[in-house]
Amino acid sequence: MNSLFLELGSFEKEVQDKFGNDFSFVFRIYNRFISNVKIQDLRKIFIETFSTQESESIDFFDSLCHIRKYIDWNVHFKVEGDFDRYKFILDFIQETILEICDRFDWPKDGFEDAYLKTINTGFINEYVLISPKTSKDRKHTAMVLVKSKADIVELFLVILNYRDKSVLKSLKLIDLPFYYDCFTDVVQSLHWLDDNEIVLSNIDKEINYRYILGRNELEMFFTPVYLDGDALKNKVKLWNPNLTVEEFQDLACLKK
């Protein structure tokens, strides 16, 4: 069976403008912890929110569970503080999920575990993107971390002491739009050229970062294989964290 995925549907515009990023952020964390949940014939749970209870319904077809669920936005508009806002959203997700578990007699353990793990993150979505790689002299290891917030995604190159795993250096690779959740076009591999030099490359190995131990900055360089240099620069424009979803989609279409 494939990994389970939770997807968010549309909002009313006022809600989308005010809380769309918050919902996407909480859904992203929760999805990390339900990826190993296996339920026969279920691949995706799709939740749409409505401001009237009359619109509520649950449908299940072709491995997709589609839920139309009422939420009292008047309560959410009054919630203050990031943690409480995120928990309001998480509680809404969990209430909805447990409701469909009762409806279809699905086990709840995996979802209850995902809820607790999401709470325990403190709503800090930080995880290893590229696992630690050790230098040839076995003095250092290097890895790439993702730190995702409700308004931005940050990628970091982290250098550690091989023996005690203490952090020696943490350098920000790049800021990305908050809706980025697949990073292979930015960075996919990490390689030690020697005991002091690291190269990070994207999936096509056309866009690269170089870091030399002891320095305080990263160098980006291009090695065109399929695209020319100008096309690569245009591709990098897609990583602007200030782009709206619409602007990103327009640029992506132009790129193609």
Verbal overview:
This protein is of the alpha+beta class. Helix content is 32%, strand content 31%. The protein contains six helices and twelve strands. It has helices at 13-34, 73-78, 82-104, 109-120, 229-237, 245-255, and strands at 5-8, 44-50, 57-61, 64-70, 125-134, 140-148, 153-161, 167-176, 189-192, 197-201, 207-212, 219-222. Strand 9 (189-192) and strand 10 (197-201) form a beta hairpin. Helix 1 (13-34) packs across helix 3 (82-104), helix 1 packs across helix 4 and helix 3 packs antiparallel against helix 4 (109-120). The radius of gyration is 21 Å and the shape is globular. The model has no long low-confidence stretch (mean pLDDT 85).
Number of helices: 6
Helix content: 25-40%
Largest sheet: 4 strands, mixed
C-alpha end-to-end distance: 33 Å
Taking strands numbered 1, 2, ... along the chain, how are they ordered across the largest sheet? 1-2-4-3
Overall outline = globular
Rg: 21 Å
Order of helices and strands: EHEEEHHHEEEEEEEEHH
What amount of the residues lies in strands?
25-35%
Structural class: alpha+beta
> How confident is the prediction overall: mean pLDDT?
85
Q: Uncertain runs with pLDDT below 50, 5 residues or more? A: none
Total beta-strand segments:
12
